[in-house]
Amino acid sequence: MLTLLREPRNCNASWEILPADKGGILKDTVLTVAKMAASKGIEDEPLLRSLDSPVEERPIDNHVLPEPEDHDFASDVPITNPGRRAYISTIILFLINLLNYVDRYTIAANLIAIQATYGIKDNDSLAGLVQTVFIIGYMITSPVFGFLGDRYPRTITMSAGILFWAAMTLSGSFVPDNMFWLFVLIRGLVGVGEASYTTISVTIIGDLFVGNRRTQMLMFYYFAVPVGSGLGYIAGKGIAEAFQDWRWALRVTPALGVLSVLCILFIIKEPTRGQAETGNHAIASQRYLEDLKALLKNKTYLFTTLGFTSIAWVVGGLALWLVKLMELVYDYNGWKDTSVSFIFGAVTCAAGFLGVALGTVGAQAYRRYNPRADALVCAFGNILAAPFLFVGLTFAATQVGLAWAVILLGEICLFLNWALVPDILMQVLIPVRRSTGNGMQLLSGHLLGDALSPYILGAVADSIRGGGQTYFERYQSLAYSLYMAVFFSVIGGGFFLAASLTIEGDREHMQATLRDCQQTEAEQGIIVVSPVQPATIITNEDVII
User: Fold this and answer.
1) Which residues form the Major facilitator superfamily (MFS) profile domain (predicted)?
2) What is the DSSP letter of 450?
3) What are phi and psi of 50, to 5 degrees?
4) What is the pTM of this model?
5) What number of other Cβ atoms are within 10 A of residue 242's Cβ?
6) Considering Cα of 210, then 215, then 216, then 219, what sign does the dihedral take?
């Protein structure tokens, strides 16, 4: 007769008494009984559940039991060779992210035409509201998708969100000229669809790769931000001019969105959360409130989130208003302004390639000498971008070539941290908390960042300009308002410097948590098979003779 006790599902839970075995046919098995106390100073996480046990879960006929085998705990080490499918999945995620940013910046490329269509040509604050409402929809739902991403199938969630995004983008192109507020509302719903993908997709890459390889894959994934932004300006303007209607620029990307969903469902195989770091082990999710409490206690996460918010404020404002500022400069000098979107798109693409690559490679090299390298590179990029942006805004009207050159250098500096911020998040958060952490970071970044900056900058420009209507007066008022972006860039650098002081301790804390869970499983794991039910994996403390 056996008395079965089910192990606690976390370190503090009580044991559960199960019915005694009545079959009486269990083979003699050497049972090792071990209990590991929860380590002090390590956050209380659910135990890791083995996914690569020697006996698979399958029905057993005629009460024939398999011979017990030793578990190979060498498989518990991080996966350093993820396989070809992981790289294919990353390429697909990159292309979808690229598509998202192409659509997002199509609006900025055609902002003047949109203002003319809806009769708000001289109202920059209302024009800025188009982007602000988009970001509001994006940021409000990011925590929701973060919650879903840590608990439910991520490929299904992303696919549903992309289909919704495609439908809203297409419908926005059919809004009549006298229904501006409906267009604004639909752009907010487009943001909801984008949030479903952006919040979750990066965590899949985090579960496929580890270490420097993960940093490299994140670098590749985040190339989509500058490239997609640049293509949004170039393709968005080009399609609008080809069809003589900016609405057609919103009718191309939805079809590609549907194709993206097919790739997600039929090609990407969703990894186990924490797969790359724990060697194909699953980690149970905790309660949502526990996740939020842990995020608030993580100083590196908080400082990085504030730094990310500053970046979002700067980039959100520049992305919408810098093109218009340069178009006003071209008009002031008597030049044709239709080339501005193409030039700005090319500058953004080049800056993105150089910035993301230099930031990632530079951080990897600097890690050999300083474990705080990621945060320090982010701080360096933000602080160095400020003087370049200041010079470009100040001398754009008289020195156009100089303005384009320093805008390029400023954007390179801002893009240094684009792949490093999510990499820092993965270094200091356990795998089952990363979607939640990313969602809350996006909420903060957009709520206090690029949801506010387009509208605030437009309103400040209107206030400074007063009744002035000349090209120079409109340029000057907009340039003065954009000086706020210079200030926020420096503030962001300060937050990343603060993160560099805490990142080592928080990184060690996360790694110790994973080791604690793996060691607990290693000391408790054993195979016991029921003669009636399918073979299952339970622990040696489940059985007492």
Assistant:
1) 89-510
2) I
3) -70, 135
4) 0.69
5) 10
6) positive
